[in-house]
Amino acid sequence: MSNSNLFLFFWTRTRRSFCTNITNKPPPPFDFTKTPISRLPTVIILGRPNVGKSALFNRLIRRREALVYNTPDDHVTRDIREGVAKLGHLRFRVLDSAGLEAEATSGSILHRTASFTANVLATSHSLLFLTDARAGLHPLDQEVGKWLRRNAPQIKPILVMNKSESLFDADDSLASAANEMSRLGFGDPIAISAETGLGMHDLFLSLKPVLEDYMVSLFNDESAREDSCSDETSSPEADESKLPLQLAIVGRPNVGKSTLLNTLLQEDRVLVGPEAGLTRDAIRTQFEFQGRTIYLVDTAGWLQRTKLEKGASSLSIMQSRKSLLRAHIIALVLDADEIVNAKRSMKHAEVVIARRAVEEGRGLVVIVNKMDLLRGKDKSSSYEQIMEVVQKEIQTVIPQVTGIPVLFISALEGRGRTTVLHQVIDTYEKWCTRLSTARLNRWLQKVMSRHSWKDQAAQPKIKYFTQVKARPPTFVAFVRGKARLSDTDIRFLTKSLKDDFDLGGIPIRIMQRAIAKKDGSGTTKSFHSVGRVAERIKSDKRERGDLVESKA
């Protein structure tokens, strides 16, 4: 085949749309979209460092979640990131892994990531062996091939040649690169470009028989157990009543966030170690606890972003901030040993996190980790003192939210797991609270009678009080007359709501609005007035830039 014909062949095949191909064929035997995520097949992306594994992961899940940065001398990805891939009618769980290096020294980060990847590989159903078409066959590619034969002999890899977009224009470059990669012994490679989307149809055709065979076996197994399990299945209405919970674990570097995530999941899901800043990607995972779905996010250590901060570290800082904005509940992790040594509960970065969570209307749970380091006769006084001081200092730092829960745990020993999960769910349920208008107005009549007004004549007349939204609970007081609720009145109503309806520990927003008046001609003259609290709430919608605060 001539060079021009070869180019035309690859170009027409890769530019062919999924819709044209699939509509000319019988419908797929399985509807992957109706399969629960936990039952979908798992595909892991493996390869040496810097071949575009994270870029392919982002292409498959159709979002830019994994950090992508060209660092030949460093490794951006260190943990296993999971997502749901969409490729034609196929749906599957895709795992992004760290780059493999066979010559990593024992105990190093690279050696630990390789061991971690091997454990995850044992539960995968298929794997994509990714190589770099521009660099050609690299010695590390051959080492990865040997590693795969040794650690996953039961899985047949699909050899994928990434960064192939520039080879379509060169004479015989694509064919020669494919011949060179075939020396790895895993068949002919699939030429793709994760950056441009080139070759995704060929990847679809390679994955289709493997994933459909898995679904056939899964369907047969479930059909065999259908009769015995039909009476025990729960109703779909009961499952739909429990909305998924988004929980983000945030804090400064090396306070035990990743260890806490592994403890909550009861498995080694992310890499842990004594090195500060070990986590770079914000790792999102899903698990079930007492019938409730929880999406758990482990973030990189929170640091103040500077103008000199560049590269993967800068991207990690930005990703941690985005994770905080997406979460429902924020778990702020503190280091008990550092609190004793510094003689203060929260440093500047932790104060920024707590205030940002409250300003964005998120539920906040403070977790004091590493309490196991304070055990012993010589540290018994510190153990008791820290449990008394932390709560008071948090209330001083965030006076606008009372009753923020503080938990004392040891993630390394697994102590406090159920306590953390129960407290997170309790805070989430408060955060989602909805109160009827009738109940609120009955409450308002009682609570207004016990409030001491400075001037009874100028007392604001609240016609009625209603909740306009939840997550967080937001209320509107419709005020009649010229008098408006002062900041003191708003604080009184907020405290009464928290005390009477058990809403402590979450932010509550109260706005006021003037009701319509009638002028002398009998026509209705309406005007709206929003009090100071509403103006303060509006200011919470800040620009998504860096949070600048003076150092404490």
Automatic annotation (TrEMBL):
**Which residue range or ranges hold the Guanylate kinase-like domain?**
40-272
The source's superkingdom equals Eukaryota
Keyword Nucleus attached: no
Q: Which CDD domains does the protein's record reference?
A: EngA1, EngA2
Q: InterPro entries, alphabetically?
A: GTP-bd, GTPase_Der, Guanylate_kin-like_dom, KH_dom-like, KH_dom-like_a/b, P-loop_NTPase, Small_GTP-bd
Does Disulfide bond appear among the keywords? Answer: no
Biological process, per Gene Ontology: ribosome biogenesis
Q: Tell me which UniProt keywords the record has, alphabetically.
A: GTP-binding, Nucleotide-binding, Repeat, Ribosome biogenesis
Q: List the coiled-coil residues.
A: none
Q: Which GO terms describe its molecular function?
A: GTP binding
| Record-stated family | Belongs to the TRAFAC class TrmE-Era-EngA-EngB-Septin-like GTPase superfamily. EngA (Der) GTPase family.
Q: Which HAMAP family match?
A: GTPase_Der (MF_00195)
NCBIfam families associated with the record: GTPase_EngA, small_GTP
Q: PANTHER family annotated for this entry?
A: GTPASE DER
Q: What is this protein called?
A: GTPase Der
User: Which species does this protein come from?
Assistant: Pisum sativum
Q: What is the lineage of its organism?
A: Eukaryota, Viridiplantae, Streptophyta, Embryophyta, Tracheophyta
